[in-house]
Amino acid sequence: MSAILGRKVGMTSIYNEAGTQTVVTVIEAGPCVVTQVKTADGPDGYAAVQLGYQDKKAKHTTKALAGHFEAVSTAPKRHLVEFRDYGLDVELGQTLSVADIFVDDGEATFRELERSAVADLLAEAQGVVSLGGGAVLDAGTRALLKGHRTLLLQVDLSSASSRVGMNRDRPVLALNPRAQLKQLLDARMPLYLEVATDVVDTSNRSARQVADDVTALLAAAP
To answer: Could you report the per-residue pLDDT of 86-102, keeping only the tens digit for each?
Structure first.
């Protein structure tokens, strides 16, 4: 398995056809630091990776843990979680983010992890599953979406460029954001329309206006 730690950054709501409100949690994933790597032939006798997430003040850290963090040259972390049989090849002290997984391990690996996460969420989630823009590139993910109500939040190039700006933290927009964004929109739109059961135009509109349209659309559904 592969994983990354995250934190809750906010809440929002969506409404179903009957007008019932569903509360949705917004999660920010990473970055995390690899604070320990165990191997099957090592003293622990099993393979595992420990990830640390969110800095905290040194005065709130025990001496034992302080030494643990110093050994990998990182600040003390609020959360430490161990994952057995971690799916990515990582090194002690390495910082992991969603972008790192995409760049270092390739898009194919990223899409595979994404597909697995989408499958789990569609099977278990009792609310809204919000996908990244590139999720539809994977045929397996598109197949998973069939049979589910899928809403496309459509946007024109001008509005999309304004929203992402010169954001080079997005792996697929790392060189020339506007030109790459146009290329992405042109290539992905047929796939978006393939899986979408409903479309809402978000161009030059506020989040509140879009939310109102989505709510009205769901409320009017048969």
So the answer is: 766 778 888 877 776 66
Beta bridge partners of 82: 50
Q: Does domain 98-219 have CATH number 1.10.1670.10?
A: no
Is 1-96 a domain of CATH 3.30.160.810? Answer: yes
DSSP result, 33-48 = EEEEEE-TTSTT-S-E
Segments making up each domain of the chain, as ranges: 1-96, 98-219
**Cα dihedral: 197, 203, 207, 213 (round 10):** -40
Give the number of other Cβ atoms within 10 Å of residue 7's Cβ.
13
CA angle 141, 144, 148 (to 5 degrees): 125
pTM for the model: 0.52
